[in-house]
């Protein structure tokens, strides 16, 4: 494009070679960790490839699992145990993460500075903010169930949807109108680090993480107390495992593992980038595992639904059977 007939070195580095060949590596190997990266980091080609591979594999697994989760909740929505507010929140969180991760994988194919890249950055900002807003809703609903009830079911429903989809829209509109040039301009289809626009995502995300950490600590203390009382009364040592199990189940929906992204502030903290890319690209898989595949309510609802389907199909078969002549006579 320069007209001078030479290769552009923008976004690519020469890894090895001699007078007859060169091997180049290009920085289209974007990874999940850019989402919470608040300072620029220079990664070696090996780490770029590794983090990019983790991102692609993790997001692909998550997208598949989240699609199954949403379909499962939709199929079982007529069952009373699944038709409650908790599963509505799970479904909305799953949808937000599903769309965000699909957009993230697509955005890797666009060049920065182009209109499609800018549009993709805005959509990514909205859907990842929505994912965090629904993680906050998960935390608040958990708080209302375990610690303190607030508001009626109807008022909570309106509040949850307003918080889950409305607040990200407001943040995005303010951010786009005030700093449109900060989207998809440098290096990748995301918010710019140079003028601090990244904080339009990181600040709300950190707020949600801190609130949910507080809720998790409060809930864990209650579960620990119940487990201790159980142990004193029944002498059941396995009850102590309830606390660890509860924390493992709650972590994916509260999004606390996203804190690893902010901790990766220099090359020496590269481990946090790997932890962040692994745990959060697989967030959808953990939601599917704990809140769908291993969830006793979902399993019971699926068995109930299967029984209804089998009874319905047998009834249809009986209706379609041609009657005997004796039946017609009588």
Helices, strands, pairings?
Blueprint: E1 12-17, E2 22-26, H1 45-75, H2 85-107, H3 115-146, H4 153-178, H5 199-234, H6 241-254, H7 259-263, H8 270-281, H9 283-293, H10 296-320, H11 325-329
Antiparallel strand pairs: 1-2
Secondary-structure-derived class: mainly alpha
Give the amount of beta strand, in percent. under 5%
Order of helices and strands: EEHHHHHHHHHHH
For the termini, the CA-CA separation is 90 Å
Rounded mean pLDDT is: 85
Q: Judging from the principal axes of the Cα atoms, what is the shape?
A: globular
Largest sheet report: 2 strands, antiparallel
Task: Give the helix tally.
Answer: 11
State the share of residues found in helices, binned by percent.
Answer: 55-70%
Radius of gyration: 25 Å
Quantity of strands, as a count = 2
| Strand order in the largest sheet | 1-2
Uncertain spans: 326-330
How would you sum up this structure, described in words?
This protein is mainly alpha-helical and 330 residues long. The protein is 67% helix and 3% strand. It has a two-stranded antiparallel ribbon. Helix 1 packs antiparallel against helix 2.
Quick synopsis:
The chain is mainly α and 330 residues long. It has helices at 45-75, 85-107, 115-146, 153-178, 199-234, 241-254, 259-263, 270-281, 283-293, 296-320, 325-329; strands spanning 12-17, 22-26. A two-stranded antiparallel ribbon has the order 1-2.
What are the defining features of this structure?
two-stranded antiparallel sheet, 330 residues, mainly alpha
